[in-house]
Amino acid sequence: MPRVEGGCFCGAIRYRVTAPLAGAAACHCRKCQYGSGGGPNYVVLAPRAALEVISGRPVVHASLADSGAEVSRTFCGACGTPLWSDSPNLPFLAIRAGSLDDPSAARPGLHIWTEAAQPWHATTPGAALFERGPTG
Ligand SMILES: [Zn+2]
Predict the structure, then answer these.
(1) What are the residues whose beta carbon lies below 5 Å from ligand 1 (ion)?
(2) Predicted structure pTM score
(3) CA–centroid distance, residue 127 to ligand 1 (Å)
(4) How far does residue 42's CA lie from ligand 1's centre (Å)?
């Protein structure tokens, strides 16, 4: 598998992922709608220890998810690009697909929190759909 790298729109933040990605997903929860600007949040899943920030200092915002778990969202403080999300409840880091240098392989295998999806949100044909999150 080719090395996965990414960064933000303005180039201040660069990162690499040093292990194979574990999959790709889309989250429709209301907080992800804020984070994405309206649509679901498209992410690839990576082992937490596999993420290395190469350059820049991203900003972290912590909040409570709909599941009650604390979620931290990391973004570029200069250009605002969302970069990744993390929660101690989840086995993987959720890296925003749009921040990858090549997002083409980030086709979601599952959609979560579809009960919060807007009526005009699309889902990926063939993907598994979950009304709530993996941790309920
Ligand atoms: Zn930036």
Answers:
(1) 8, 10, 12, 76, 78-79
(2) 0.90
(3) 31
(4) 19
